[in-house]
Amino acid sequence: MSKSLVSSPVIKRLPRYYRFLGELERQGIVRISSRELSEMMGLTASQIRQDLNCFGGFGQQGYGYNVKELHSVISRILGIDAGNKTILIGAGNLGKAIASHIDFNKRGFRLIGIFDSNPEKCGKIISNLKISNMNTIESFCRSNHPVCAVLCIPKDAAKEIAPKLIELGIKGFWNFSHYDFAVDSGKKIIVENVHLTDSLMTLAYGLNNTDEEEN
Amino acid sequence: MSKSLVSSPVIKRLPRYYRFLGELERQGIVRISSRELSEMMGLTASQIRQDLNCFGGFGQQGYGYNVKELHSVISRILGIDAGNKTILIGAGNLGKAIASHIDFNKRGFRLIGIFDSNPEKCGKIISNLKISNMNTIESFCRSNHPVCAVLCIPKDAAKEIAPKLIELGIKGFWNFSHYDFAVDSGKKIIVENVHLTDSLMTLAYGLNNTDEEEN
User: Fold this and answer.
1) Residue B43's CB: how many other CB atoms inside 10 A?
2) What torsion do the CA atoms of A47, A48, A52, A54 make, to the nearest 10 degrees?
3) How many inter-chain contacts (A to B, CB under 8 Å) are there?
4) C-alpha A19 chain-centroid distance
5) Contacts of residue A174 in chain B, CB cutoff 8 Å?
6) Residue numbers in chain B where pLDDT is lower than 50
7) ipTM value
8) What is the pLDDT of residue B211?
9) Which of A20, A95, A215, B204 could tie A152 with a disulfide, CB 3.0–4.6 Å?
10) Which of A205, A209, A210 would you mutate first to test chain B, the one with the most B CBs within 10 A?
11) Which of A12, A107, A200 is nearest residue B204 as measured by Cβ atoms?
């Protein structure tokens, strides 16, 4: 079975399936039809059938999907229990919020280190982890082998540290900086960008361009 | 000129153009060819020409784009100076980080109020604003007419407050909750979702599925 045949839009929808099925499971619902799931999620039933077929056909005609089974299959596909060792870089407002707000353990990750270049922040505790000085990151990586890094630092700092981290074995980046990995292409790494201000500006565009009426 | 003909992927790329052009302008660069811009941004030159043509042809054959002019046109299209009055709901870790980390003024917004349902948080100051009690939100909206809300609250709280906010005149949502506006469709509002944990799970999928080698 070639997993790589799954298209990127389907992959992007998987976490959403995972969320909805988790809620159904918590509500004690045992099975659900593609039609019911489609109404909940605002997708078409045929879209849902197509998406889930990519991972093998779990649905049965006239029965629907077994909620618990489908939830657990998607959890396995996403790697929710993988516990990928992760470091977070940049303990400013955003980094601190990400470290304390996000439950990494439930999403396939394990946060094992937090780093900042400001010595005054070092030693402080966030989310049960002591903030370490950036100049210890190399020895930390060599001893602890993290595979993922969360970048909560400005673009220039990200540009400087990213190649070093790749050399140290980091394979995945959760990138909150404006550093553009796409530009330095050719490396086999996985990047998920969260460009908050781009999202905010898209909202600004929407607010300014849908309604042409004058107030 | 009908702005609504601009497709959603082009709109999603506009903030990125805005960022790159802003950097070029700060570096004192006066003009740039679509080829140079494409190399910087990791897009094709023809993609860039197509995108920017949607807003009227600013490029001149053999000259390229005037950086300052293009930056300012895109700024106008995005509504960067619109100062849309905005409230933030939920002053937990994430809400506090968003309020202090994001420069709303430079992105088309003006943060005018922060609300939380926890009375112990009320009165505290974030980003020069006093946190107000959620039970004052209705009178606040009636007096101050915000048009945008940032939701940094759990799904159930968002589900409860969203329809009320729409009634009170909110037209745009920057939605960090897992509440799904798509499901309660039919209302003419603009929503930008930032589903952080979905993004993180997509990264988990990538880490677990691209490299089939055993370590």
Assistant:
1) 18
2) 0
3) 210
4) 13
5) 199-200, 203
6) 1-3, 212-215
7) 0.90
8) 54
9) A95
10) A205
11) A107
